Amino acid sequence: MEHRHLGRSGLLVSEITYGNWLTHGELVAREAALSCVRAALDAGITTFDTADVYARGAAEELLGEALRGTRRESVEIATKVCLPTGDGPNDRGLSRKHVLESCHASLRRLGTDYVDLYQAHRFDDRTPLAETLIAFDDLVRQGKVLYLGVSEWTAAQIRAALDIAGQLGLRDRIVANQPQYNMLWRVVEPEVVPLCEAEGIGQIAFQPLAQGVLTGKYRPGEAPPEGSRAASGGRAPTFIRRVLGDRLLHQVQELRPIADEAGLSMAQLAIAWTLRRPTVSTALIGASRPEQVTENATAAGVRLDDALMRRIDETLGDLVERDATKTAQMMAVKADWAAPAPVAAG
């Protein structure tokens, strides 16, 4: 496993990050989740990503349990705050109250005194950016957070945060952005990536396999294979079906000869492609079985040449989405996510 700097910060992260969205505490049983984390550690993965909202906190608890006994300094733990964690009016967003309370709750669930990276899971236009940034800065000064990041923010939102942090004289700034990014979904390339490159912000690219679509296991005209996310319960099928379509699935199958020539599985090809892109510090993978972790981790260190990258582009053609206005669309929550819960009369 190779490591890269997270943006221009001094923090080194493994080229592959193990994440537990839609798996731990939801689709994957406890023992399988623990086995996946052990497989990640065995593969040399040192960076782990979760969020307070995943499985209503159970994902953080399982990750903390899985890492128990591992030397804390040998791993990098990232979590997030913003999305609703309860029904109260302040159980969401990026207010000082919710940021501080959620951080403390995450630390308890993870069983650690600090997280290496704390990320704003979404942008909150109902809270002044200055309030959020000062709360984050206070957590850094208290030693509870080492580095700061955002997820699915637009270039304008990141720019505004950097400007306000500078105006306030905050010493701790954003060093990471976590966007959805893969061969098919490249909406961060026109605006977000150039800004991040200029400002030294590294990408933690999630869904490099496009919810498994780029592994080639979903075939046009066929039902999803048994045991796949698209055939499972919970929320996973809803997310996956957004990117399923016979034309797309047919073209994805055309990537198989390219992967074969490179001596890679289709999953490894997709992850290696992501790691080849500008400003990407790490590719974030999830898994329901330890063997998936082992296979995908071997994409670290693979270097795809320019000719192969061009063949991928030619194969996918106009199926690639590059519209910058869709930066957060695929993972956007409902427009009223930040609306406070109804207050009881009296």
Q: What global shape is seen?
A: globular
The CATH fourth-level homologous superfamily of the domain at 3-209 and 276-303: NADP-dependent oxidoreductase domain
Name of the top-level CATH class of the domain at 3-209 and 276-303? Alpha Beta
Report the count of strand segments: 10
Fill in the CATH topology of the domain at 3-209 and 276-303. Answer: TIM Barrel
Question: Helical region count?
Answer: 12
Question: What is the spatial order of strands in the main beta sheet?
Answer: 3-4-5-6-7-8-9-10
| Poorly predicted runs | 341-346
Give me the oligomer status: single chain
Label the CATH architecture of the domain at 3-209 and 276-303.
Alpha-Beta Barrel
Describe the sheet with the most strands: 8 strands, parallel, barrel
Radius of gyration: 19 Å
Task: Determine the N-to-C terminus distance.
Answer: 59 Å
Q: Topology, pairings included?
A:
Layout: E1 3-5, E2 12-14, E3 16-19, H1 30-42, E4 47-49, H2 58-67, E5 76-81, H3 96-110, E6 115-120, H4 129-141, E7 145-151, H5 155-168, E8 174-178, H6 192-199, E9 202-206, H7 236-241, H8 246-253, H9 256-262, H10 266-275, E10 280-285, H11 290-297, H12 306-316
Parallel strand pairs: 3-4, 3-10, 4-5, 5-6, 6-7, 7-8, 8-9, 9-10
Antiparallel strand pairs: 1-2
